[in-house]
Structure formats: C-alpha cells, structure tokens
Amino acid sequence: MKKYVLTSVLCIGAAYFAKAQIVTASGTVKNEKGEAVRSALIQEEADTKTATYTDSLGFFSLPLKSNTALLVIAKGYKDEKVSAKDNLVVVLKPGKSSLKALSLDDPAKTKTSDAPLNSTQGYSFFNVSASRSGGNLFNVSTKEDTKGSRYLVGDGWAKGYVVDKNGASIKNDNFSYNYDKINGSLLLTQDKRAAVDVDRDQIKSFTIYDKLDQPQTYELVTSIDPTHYSQLLSNGGKYKVYKYTKTTFVKANFQTNGMTSTGNRYDEYVDEPTYYVLNVKTSALQKISLKAKAIKQVFAADADKVKAYFSDHADDDINDTFLSNLADSLN
User: Fold this and answer.
1) Are 126 and 187 in contact (CB under 8 A)?
2) Buried-state track 128-158, b at ≥16 Cβ within 10 A, e below 16
3) Rounded distance, CA 184 to CA 197, Å?
C-alpha cells in the first residue's frame, strides 16, 4: 500500500469527504426463526472491499458511495443479495456459505471485523457505529445488548489532534477522532459517518479529549506493542508511565439447566490494562502492577520520596491516578 505523510492523508481525507456523496445502508440480518445473525459479512457487490459486519443484535450500518446491491454472507447460511437502503431486514436461509477464510465465530479473531476491508492510498473506510439507528429490530432471542465497546469513544467521536513523526502538531477543528482498541487504528472523520484510518507510521502521538474535556494522549511504544497505542499517564524528565489496554471480544456463554445458571447472556468487549514505567535516562522499560510493593521497587532510585508520597496519600486507592500523580511528583 502506498504511504502518504500524515498531512497528505488529512488533506486527502478532507477532499474526499467534501466530494463524496455517502449513502448509508443499514438494517438487521436474521434467520428464518427470527433470530439475529451476528458477525454476518455485509459487502458491496461492485466493490467487495467495502464491507462491515453485523453486531450481536444482527444490526449493521455501511457507508457507500452510491445506491448499489449488497451481498450478505454468513457462516452456515446461503448468500443473499439485496438492494442497499435504510432499515433493511435480511432473512438468511440455512445452506453453504461462500465465506471460508474469515473467523466469523469470533469477530475479535478477524482483523477487519466491524470494519470495511478496503485500503486505498493510505486510508480506509470504517463503520464505527454499531448502535441502533431507527427502524424495527427483530431480536427474539434472549441475548442482551453487547457490553463495552471496541472503540475508545464508544460509538461516538471526540475532538483531538495528532503529532506527526517530526513532532509537528496537526490540528483541525473540523475533524473528530476515535480509536479502535482491537485493530489499533486511529480513525478520523469529518462527517461522523465515514472515516479514514491514519497511517500509524506517520504518527508520534495523538490526543483525544474525553467527556470532561480532559486530554488523553496515546503514543506508539513499539517495545510494548508495535501495532497498538499506549496511553501516556505521566510524562517527565525522569519517568514516563504508560497504560496499555488489551481489548478482547467475549461471546455470550449463558447456560442453564433450569436449576442453576452460569455465564452471561450478552457479548462483551473486555479491557485488560497493563502498566509500564520507562526510565527516561536509562531507557529501561518495566512492567508494573498496581501494588504498593511493585511501585516502590520500580521507583527504588527515589525511595525516600516514594515513601513520603505513600505516607501522605495513605487513604488513597492505588489506581491510575495514584500512579500518575506519584510519577509527576518524582519528575
């Protein structure tokens, strides 16, 4: 795939948004029993690289360049061809599917699940929102709504900015951002319907403002993960503290024998945080747990200051804020 510098990607994205007339196809996919078909592949017939997947309720929403035919493909069902429009209800019949290579049983194992597969000139189109947007949803199963989200900002967007690999801040008030925690993609949008995937090779860091308008900065620390960003909790001349979040998709696993029940009725995106401390002077990176003993060990060079901090904050919970504030005090 041809690479573009970050500023070019942003300009290309802005030009595309200005010229393209996006048509959104949406609806639900179910089987003959009326049950939602999750992880069904929805793709444009004329351009099979433009695609998305249904969520746990069988819902999908896919931005298209024009009204066109869609192919609906799911494991265990015959392929179905439908016209693109809003509030579609697609009923699949049991049979052989043309889809073989993708892991439909677990979207987390499919690298491009929930996201169209096309990649042109350094950017891709994504269906970020997997929420319901009107119309009738046919969900007669007992499965509940999906918990959590694969996206940092849920199914919405937030303001922010990017620092490129040369250290230049690139800000544009017309752009909003989100971060795909599973794919490791920084998504940028202008119209909040279609998005571009900014090439991570061109990004030093990005900042997204949360609901309280507080900045959250993320850096690509290859020694932690070469394809996913880590949140920068503290940044100073002596120490940097990072929070790396691994997000996995857990399918509904509810079972009951009439007497006892186990598992959950809902699909869930589960976040598992891991913390790291970087010694700026030695470049030593250490994994750390949120335990007093582990924290004191990693900051052993400042033992007296750490001891005093713990004494002054004896009643505080040892969490992200505690670790961040401690590192700030040592810096």
Assistant:
1) yes
2) bbbebeeeeebbebebbebebbbbbbbeebb
3) 10
**Whole-model pTM over 0.85:** no
Q: How far is it, in rounded angstroms, from Cα 85 to Cα 23?
A: 8
Distance CA 103, CA 109 (A): 6
Residue at token pair 């009326």: 34
Parallel, antiparallel or unpaired: strands 88-92 and 160-164: unpaired
End-to-end CA distance of the chain: 42
CA distance linking residue 72 with residue 52, whole number of Å: 10
Per-residue pLDDT reduced to its tens digit, 45-72:
776 666 777 877 788 877 776 677 888 8
Side by side, the strands of the sheet bearing 88-92 are: 59-64, 23-31, 88-92
Q: Which bin fits 213, alpha (ψ -120 to 50), beta or left (φ > 0)?
A: left
Could you report the per-residue pLDDT of 288-316, keeping only the tens digit for each?
999 999 999 999 999 999 999 999 999 99
Task: Write out the two tokens for 42.
Answer: 């929805």
